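If you are new to this repository, start here. Below is one unmodified record pulled from the training split, so you can see the exact layout before writing a loader.
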Amino acid sequence: MKIHPTGVSFHPNNARVLIRPFIPADPVKVANTIARILTLSEAACEEELGKAIADFSNRHLEVHAIWMRHYEKVAHHLGEPVSERRRLLIGAYFSGEYALESAALFNPSMVPHPDQSGTAPGEMRFIMSLRATGEGHISSIEFRTGVIHADHTVSIDEISPFVTVPELVPDQTYIKGIFIHKLAEMGLDNEFSQSVMAQLKPSFSLRELNDAIERTTCPEELEQEVLRTMDRVRWLAESNYQVHFRRALPISERIIFPVSSNESNGIEDARFVRFVHDDGEVVYYATYTAYNGHTILPQFLQTTDFQRFDVVTLNGRSVQNKGMALFPRRVNGCFAMISRQDDENIFLMFSENLHFWDEPILLQQPIEPWEFMKIGNCGSPIETEEGWLLLTHGVGPMRKYCIGAILLDLDDPSKVIGHLKEPLIAPEGNEREGYVPNVVYSCGAMVHGKRLILPYGMSDSASTIVTIDLADLLENIRKV
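And here is the target side for that same chain:
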């Protein structure tokens, strides 16, 4: 098969920085720093603030608002009110820049853009997500937009020099039934949690949850169990949240950075899919891996406009490991998901509810030498006339990752029609060098016209896009 390079590539840019809180864990150090700032006269405070503004205002939008938010995080250490300018200076001291893609920009996922207005005949506008990784291997989600032209060349829209994190919706609401189910799954169905849940309506807010926790008393002998339950209940609530960006922000400026404690060390490998519901409603879903430095947790994200995002935990005994990928529509009346339960094989799951997944079916085991170590998916299955095209990744000798493909029956995707005997893409030349050598990996491709448009990451460092004749690919799969 002929691989058609587009000449498009995405490389890390150290200059794309956001402002994060920079607050010592030791409250004494926080108090000591604030005490030193308070020794400055108002004139000296104004002078130091002016220096900070001159130094950083051209690198960030709304730097004043960010510094004021960070001031609020330490304001309880002050004994008396201070001027607005001094509050800003305190906020600046407890802030720091983070180069979110300084290490890598990789593992892309591509979907059609929700707005196709203004495109010429034969063109398709797209949105691509990328995993950006910076200091400490903390990963976040970035976006790019572009156009696939009628001749299958690809152009990328101008990239904003700024990055902006979304605003967190302050009082998230929860569905009581789903929340109770997840508590039971976590082993927290006890007297305390039942008492808390009994006080809440079928739909409740974070404030109402915290109020119910505060109102609930417990026997002294159960104090340790209750404290553990309280901590885990709040952890679960924090893991389900909503964020939104201002509509005027360019999409390339929008960054989904870790919010909850379960993803404090990264949001990894988002697999986006354009899902069409039975009534024609289009929703963009994504599965990703939340990582807190010790454990991983599959998470679920949804949006209709890439402006507002809802993040929820998934439920069921099959929600484990990495690499879950949702089919783009229901199959035989059920939602369908590709997964990897054992870090070795590919599984298939069906469910009547997007949020609950059980009973995985073994779909494909490693067959070829280049995938003997393990296989997984490279994004959501793509519907074709010949069947469901599922791009895969296989791991072979020396932890070399290659991209392959299998074809599933359109009516019964538990049936594998065929697979590629040789890799579709293997790391070659400079693609072998990077943060993690000898790796090519994708989180989602799309079909436009008669071509597969395949973005992929190169050795966990940078990304590119190639195109492949779809008929040629399917013919090679059928030959197996």
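Two things worth knowing about this chain: The mean pLDDT is 93. The longest strand covers residues 124-133.
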